Amino acid sequence: MDGNYINTVYATKWTANGGYVSRPDSIAMWVEKSGIATMPDYYVDAISGATPGKSASQSFTWNLRDINGETVSPGEYRVFLEGTLRWKNRVIYSCVIGIGNTPATVQADAEYIYEASDRQAALTVGSPENAMIGTVTVSFIC
Q1: Exposure string for 59-86, b = 16+ CB within 10 A, e = fewer
Q2: Can you list the alpha helix ranges (DSSP code H) found in the chain?
Q3: Is 3 a domain residue?
Q4: Are strands 89-99 and 75-86 parallel, antiparallel or unpaired?
């Protein structure tokens, strides 16, 4: 809740393995907050994977450990899911969830960032790319 980076659950292999250098618009908030440029290779391999397919649902699991492998303390945590829609256009889902003794599920709120680039006009509220990521929920299971 203090704005400190704790851990990454998933990033596409292309972005995590240097794609962010050739295309700085690719999940830019994560690139900045995670410090990916200085992460050891073994850690980058542990968080990256293929780009998810077009299935109806995706599920990712966090083991409640920080970047150093230490279990996080009970409390409230802000969770982010960032997606690049097209070039500089992106969406950031966020929510606060309590980690402790009680199961919890929260729906994340979406913030769309529409920005033109030298190659593309900015997306709009009606752009079909907005549907690339649907409802995002975060659950804590005891």
Answers
A1: eeebeeeeeeeeeeeeeebebbbbbbbb
A2: 13-14, 20-22, 28-34, 41-47
A3: no
A4: antiparallel
List, for residues 31-75, the tens digit of each pLDDT value: 999 998 888 887 787 787 777 766 667 888 899 999 889 999 999
User: pTM above 0.85?
Assistant: yes
Indicate the residue type of 128.
P
The residue count of the chain comes to 142
Token match 């618009």: residue?
25
Q: Is residue 2 part of a domain?
A: no
Judge whether 111 lies within some domain: yes
Would you say 20 and 38 are in contact if contact means Cβ atoms under 8 Å apart? Answer: no
Measured distance CA(88)–CA(78) in Å, rounded:
24
Tokens, residue 73 = 């303390």
Nearest-angstrom CA–CA distance, 110 and 33: 19
Three-state secondary structure call for residue 21: helix
